[in-house]
Amino acid sequence: MSDSASPALAFSAAIEDAAVLIRNAERGVVLTGAGISTPSGIPDFRSEGSGLWSRDEPMDVASLSTFRTAPERFFRWFQPLAGQILNAQPNRAHMALADFERAGHVRTIITQNIDALHQKAGSKNVVEMHGTLQTVSCTNCFQQFKSTPFLQPYIESGDIPRCPGCNGILKPDVILFGEQLPQSSWYEAQRAARQCDLMMIAGSSLEVLPVARLPMQALDRGAHLIIINNTPTYLNVRADVVILDDVATTLPEIAKRVFHG
Ligand SMILES: [Zn+2]
């Protein structure tokens, strides 16, 4: 391609290339990160100037040790965020991925997000690497509950949610900093990555380990790689297709080509 090729043409060619790979995929896996949920109004604490997260250092306040020693700090910080996440709606990127799964092009979605927006969009096989806000568990008796009856009053009042059985503090089932990843999710994600014939990265900068290593496992076994993210990742050099753009604009475009040629 010459230097004078227009960016619009290059973009359109990349969309077409991605559509062909997805249409031919039989065991596609998608890895999604914060970038797919920002268009649904959920801030990404890693990007500069997203006010909600910068109010406190999330690595400190959203850590397991803070939760254990000063839960009121965690719950004060998490209050506005919990409301945004619980009430968020899936966007067109989530919808496109659900369509790919229904059509048999995608088998598994591995997500770093805790917002359940893939499930709300209709995706069935979702592996949540960082847990979910859909359930809470008692830190004392370990009973698990659906979140809404406990988190909705907390979002309104700020009062720490308590276990109806033993009055222990209820912890959202999200993985905090300093907390182990759920082992079953990790095994499932690795198995999916090793068996896939296509891996697509959608809205992840591949900066959080160990999830960021999953595409390497797919590449090592000969899978194709598509990367859609608005900043470059360490694997862009090894990808078949790279689209440096928002997933919410790109994925619906790709879906159009996949389903309507
Ligand atoms: Zn309890």
Describe this structure in words.
The chain is an alpha/beta fold and 261 residues long. Helix content is 42%, strand content 16%. The protein contains 11 helices and 9 strands. β7, α10 (214-220) and β8 form a beta-alpha-beta unit. α5 crosses α8. The longest helix has 18 residues, at 7-24. The model is unreliable at 47-55 (pLDDT under 50). It binds zinc ion. Zinc ion (ZN) binds at residues 138, 140-141, 143, 163, 165-166, 168. Zinc ion binds next to loops.
List keywords for this structure.
single chain; elongated; 9 strands; alpha/beta; 261 residues; binds zinc ion; 3-stranded antiparallel β-sheet
- Average predicted confidence as pLDDT: 92
Total of DSSP H or I helical runs spanning 4+ residues: 11
Spatial shape:
elongated
Bound molecules: zinc ion
> How does the helix and strand content classify structurally?
alpha/beta
- Strand content is 15-25%
Order of helices and strands: HEHHHHHEHEEEHEHEHEEH
Number of strand segments:
9
Unreliable segments (pLDDT under 50, ≥5 consecutive)?
47-55
Distance between the termini: 24 Å
- Work out the helicity level: 40-55%
* Radius of gyration, CA atoms, in whole angstroms: 19 Å
Strand order of the largest sheet: 3-2-1-7-8-9
Largest sheet: 6 strands, parallel
